[in-house]
Amino acid sequence: MKVLLVDDYSATTDLLADVACSMGHAVTKAYSGADALVAAGGDGAFDFILLDIGLPDINGHELCLRLRASEKYASRRIFSMTAYDDIRERFDMSCFDGQILKPLSLEQFESLLSG
Which PROSITE patterns match (predicted)? Predict the structure, then answer.
């Protein structure tokens, strides 16, 4: 499976990428919304995208809306990741397939990739 991981905190992104790679997935990392848009605009499409909501340039909600506007990502699995427990009060999260609260457990992440 092709996976895109987007988080400005590189330690989180790199750790999750290592886990996904160890499970046999092809992983692309992005540390900003702009980098994620460039990666998503490349050849093919990602099967699974995990977006941090609190990105410094484009918040993850806006990024998800931009991706969903493309036919390429209209039906792909996109999950949000955030430390904000009141995220549903801040944004309409219906563009996401699910929300994950930080800190994310490795078992939870592996389950997302498997399911």
Answer: RESPONSE_REGULATORY
| Number of domain units in the chain | 1
User: Which residues are CB-contacts of 51 (< 8 A; sequence separation ≥ 6)?
Assistant: 6, 36, 60, 63, 64, 78, 79, 80, 81, 96
Q: What tokens appear for 29 in the block? A: 């990392």
- Per-residue pLDDT tens digits for 50-84: 999 999 999 999 999 999 999 999 999 999 998 87
Q: In which domain, by residue range, is 82 found?
A: 2-114
Alpha carbons within 13 A on the beta-carbon side of 45: 13
